[in-house]
Structures are given as structure tokens and as C-alpha cells.
Amino acid sequence: QVQLVESGGGLVRPGGSLRLSCAASGSIFSIHSMGWYRQAPGKQRDVVAAITSGGSISYADSVKGRFTISRDNAKNTVYLQMSSLKPEDTAVYYCYVDQYGLGRAWGQGTQVTVSS
């Protein structure tokens, strides 16, 4: 099994910044990609950002220019640097890892609240 441990969520004022981390451990063999989704109350879970093992990156339009995803392949860890946060960024953020032939594993989620 794969374990994903997220950290870095919390309460921040509009315009502030947070950095999320997600470390994967356990049955890690061949990672294709890692990334982040988020789910606000009453809404579906939506993709935020993703990064492949080759370094290809994609972002949701709503976070482009404000969020930066990065990855430490040696540590099987993915990061999400969030800046210029808005109240609409409030959600539970979930990290994931996709492995070749093994599918996707999810983290437990970390709450991000943007409020004054």
C-alpha cells in the first residue's frame, strides 16, 4: 500500500501564502505523476495542479500565476506553493500519486481556509 501524508494547511488571510507538502511512502515503485485536487463544501473535487516524473506541469485556470507545484523525486514528495490566496481557494486539498500499472492513491486531505 501507498501512504500519503499531507501537511501545511491552515487559516490564512486573503492575499497570504501557504505551502502544502505531501510525502508518499510504502509501495512506491514507478511514479508517473503527483498532484493536488481540492474540494470546497458542497462542490465536486477538482484538479488544482499536477506534475509528471518528467517535469511536465499543468494548472487549473483558476490558480495559474498564483500557485506553483514542485516535486522532489528523491523524497517522493510533492509541494504546492500557494500565493495571493482568495476566499474562493478555501477547500480541503488532497494530494495524489499515480503509478504505472497500480493506479492512484490519495492523501487524507488538509484544510485550507482563506478568511479575514
What does this structure look like?
- With about 120 residues, the chain is mainly beta.
- It has strands at about 1-5, 10, 20-25, 30-40, 45-50, 55-60, 65-70, 75-80, 90-100, 105, 110-115.
- Strands 2, 4, 5, 6, 9, 10 and 11 form a 7-stranded mixed beta sheet that branches. It has a 4-stranded antiparallel beta sheet with strand order 1-3-8-7, with no helix packed on it.
- It is globular.
User: Structural class of the secondary elements?
Assistant: mainly beta
**First-residue to last-residue Cα separation:** 40 Å
Average pLDDT across residues?
Answer: 95
Largest sheet, in brief, is:
7 strands, mixed
Tell me, what's the shape?
Answer: globular
Features of this protein?
116 residues; 11 strands; seven-stranded mixed sheet; mainly beta
Q: What would you say about this model in short?
A:
Helix content is 0%, strand content 58%. The protein has strands spanning 2-7, 10-12, 18-26, 31-39, 46-52, 57-59, 67-72, 77-82, 91-99, 103-106, 110-114.
